[in-house]
Amino acid sequence: MTVVHRRSVLKTAGLAGLAVLLPPELLAACSTLASKSGPKGHGFLVFDAHQAKVVEEATARLIPGPHDDPSEKGHPGAREANVTQYIDTMLGALTVVPQKVFAGGPFSDRAGAPIDEMARFLRLTPAQVRGWTTRLSTLRSQYREGVTTLDKMAGGDFTTSSAYKMDEILAQDPGGFMDLMFGHAIEGMYSAPEYGGNGDLVGWHEISWQGDRQPIGYTDKQVSLSDGPDVYVPTGVGKQLLTLLTTSGL
Amino acid sequence: MTKRALVIGSGPGGSVAAMVLAEGGFDVTIFEKGPNYFTNLDSDLPGTVFSNDELKMNRGFSLPDQTAEPRVYRSSPQATPITGAVEALPQTVGGGTVHWDAKTPRFWDIDFKKLSMLGPVRGAEISDWPFDYAEISPYYDRIEELIGVAGDISLFPKTPTLSHAPRTKALPMAPGPPEYSSLVVSEGCRKVGLHPFLAPMAINSRVYQGRPRCNNCGFCSGYGCPILARIGALAPLRDALRSGAELRADSMVVKVNTKGRRVTGVTWLDDRNVAHKESGDLVVLAANSIETARLAHLSGLPDPYDLAGRRVMFHWFSEASGIFLGERLHNYRGRDHTHDIDDFADPDFPGAREAAKKAGLPYFRAGKIELGGTQLPLDEASSYQEVLRLISPQKPFGTEFKQLMRSSLLRDRLCGIELIGEDLPYADNRVDLDPKVRDWRGLPVARITYGPGPSELAAQAFYMPWMIKLLKAAGADVAIAIPELSSSRFPIGQDQVPTTEHVMGGMPMGTDARTSVTDEQGRHHHLENLFVADGSVFPTSGGHNPTLTIMAVALRQAASWLSTG
Question: Which domains does chain B have, with CATH numbers?
Fold first, then answer.
């Protein structure tokens, strides 16, 4: 049982539903666009240089690092974790063989195994190819349109705006693009590095998370005993969160 | 001449049926719609590509693809249909036991004889199972040995657990290490008079039949086990393969072919969607409650009383979370959770009879509570993303988000508990074919109509305050409860697709062909060589995880099919 896991599944379920209902001519259009995208000569599979730059600046506002927010000194963010690389890899996952959707297994080389089997991606089934083709086509056009919208709202080029202006634009969540990108920035920040993000494991180190633990696992003592006191004093947004939960609790 | 058996589904029910039939001399073919993520399945220790990878599982690695193979949900026949991942269980070799955290409680005496022992409930189709606890008990013993259950029956509460599900045989393995957060919450339970205990689970606490002991990696519930310390359906599947059964993955049966009162075989599609036919002397449906009912409808199986797919039951899950500010609970290590309480599955829990009476019901039950569990970083981060929209709408991102991640209030400092509530069987809760939505193969998808009745609502309302109470007693600084949300008939529910992943009913067993689909051996009432071996045959849902019971019932039934042909 993971408490919110089931609900997270639901969110993506909503997207999937829309994709199924897309009319065939739109699907065809999506796949045409897909075939046009490919290596662009900037080290990206899907983004052109400007799109990559906009996504980089925008995700650095969403999950800021030391260069983006003075209060994050010593705490890497989306920029340092290569979140843009992650998003580009996801959007172009079907343009490479094997497709970069599901990392292999059972082990990476981070917890005692000699080779990183997670780096060998798994071949998709025909049903999975079908589903991912549809979803990624939709996402690619959402990114294309989203970047255009951010530029427009910035009066031309989002990347030349001030941090304050960028935040103001993103907070309006135009067409749901900020929220969509934030979801992907989270994935790029805290997922296994084989997917293109979490560079040098900065996302995991930042939250004291050890990531995949096979084949070493944890000892029985680490499972059964307390790690000792570690007091959290509620301040700022943490305090607000606790207040929200306390007042909305049933 | 060797008789041919065709088994549809390689999950817990289908694998047990295949094992019995193959060992009994049948030439068995097992059709699995999903892919095979294992190698050397006939060996003691298969290989696998499952891993400690949260993104892979969130992307639906083991599930039916949500776009290519969706389902449709309505909370009532009048409600707007929603397309999505309705009760999406793993669709791979091994079925639901690929993602389970392998809790293996037994159903209780009152589950098997609910009508006789507890009585009818107006509006629900309560019936007795064709056998009782004493009769199924030895089959439970055999499955517990086959899949390797760890636990200590001397630690189970005498009341209500052992009085409703008596045991004489010790479990094959001692319990594994208790999880710290489960211990903390168990202490809270004891303080308020409840009876926590180390739950039985099919996870190795020592080397068992050539497979290693669990090394506490923590990626358990929802994840395939990377080291096969948790094997589930792959144990009977291994035995089936060793007795000559053939496994065909990526192969979807789309029609059971019939002639008069007999089935003659199946039509199936390979992964390129090319159709093939296979003939058989016996066909076993074990695709899970939703897909078995869908296949019955796709095949046009005889159904003179309009029963197939009705009385489907999912369990409702009420969740509560405690947040502990004084320490990190490291809930991400070990076996998801290690302790349960059974108190709320007891219809005679103090106050429950009175509360039922007030709600106009003869009685109600909830079910067991799993004590412990949390979320991993991606899900945690998504929670903060949602929360920030509420508490910081002017700027729902940035350093505030990172501060929350570092605090880990909703992961490392959180301990979740989950109530698995009994669903009563209602004729209107059903699986049929959606008139519009089709899967990638062009076939109509399953449409699920499901919502709670007065019993479920009253039981949830009565027990949710207890969930807060026990978490507070355990020392939680903040405790919140979230009811089941899958239907607008639940309080604050908003017609989200059900995702509890416990699916039962639809082809219930019974002695009367006017009120049941299958007989006491799981044989279809109108087709003499068609059998059902998954949770579809359950007449009631109990208040406990269903998989062990699915396997035990399949084991009991399949032995009687050997003389069929």
Answer: 1-80+89-102+136-142+225-313+504-565 (3.50.50.60)
